[in-house]
Amino acid sequence: MVAIARSPDRIDALAKEHSDTHALACDISDESQVRDMMTKVRELYGSPNLLIHNAVGGGWGTFLEIDPQMLERNFRINVMGLLYLARELAPDMIRTGAGGILVTGNTSSIRGKADFAGFAPTKAAQRILAESMARDLGPKGIHVAYILIDAVIDVPRMRARLSDAPDDFFIKPAAIADEPWHIYNQDRSAWSFLSELRPFGEKW
Of 21, 54, 160, 176, which residue is least crowded by CB atoms under 10 Å? Predict the structure, then answer.
């Protein structure tokens, strides 16, 4: 597995934790960095047959409060980053007639709350881009799916921030990981595009 992140320290720590993980630093909002990174990936490891786009740019505020540059930055990460990566990987997948592009999103992709004005529009655009890709690539043998995660992920940072929240409030990382694995291995006769994950206690 090749793991990509903007922070070298963060991604190097992940690689040390998992022996089968190769870490590369890259800002996916920068097309030239994505191109250079993918050239290196192909030279070292060959052409990937699966892309999981999990990078996210976020922020809070109403449309009157936000800095417009925040919305633009989030769009570059959430939408343009997906576009750049997919355009690098899809041609090889098309040639082999197989592969997968899985995108993680959240409820903001289908609902714009007042104080999510700098974030929700970019997630909605990301979901629609993924759907356009799915309609184009599906008949060519590449499975594109959007995994909507409607929950707070159970990691130490969020546990500390929400120390009074019950266990039912959080979603387990391992349980999230089960879903892309399931989607990637779906039979071609029953591919799904939109998958929604939420704890059983979540009010939605």
Answer: 160
pLDDT for res 19: 76
Residues 121-158 as b or e (16 or more Cβ within 10 Å = b): bbbbbbbebbbebbeebeeeebbbbbbbbbbbebeeee
| Strand positions, DSSP E, the chain | 2-5, 22-25, 50-53, 99-105, 142-149, 152-153, 170-171, 194-197
pLDDT tens for residues 128-173?
999 999 999 999 999 999 999 998 999 998 999 999 988 888 999 9
Please tell me whether residues 37 and 114 are part of one structural domain: no
The reported pTM is: 0.92
Whether residue 202 lies inside any domain: the answer is no
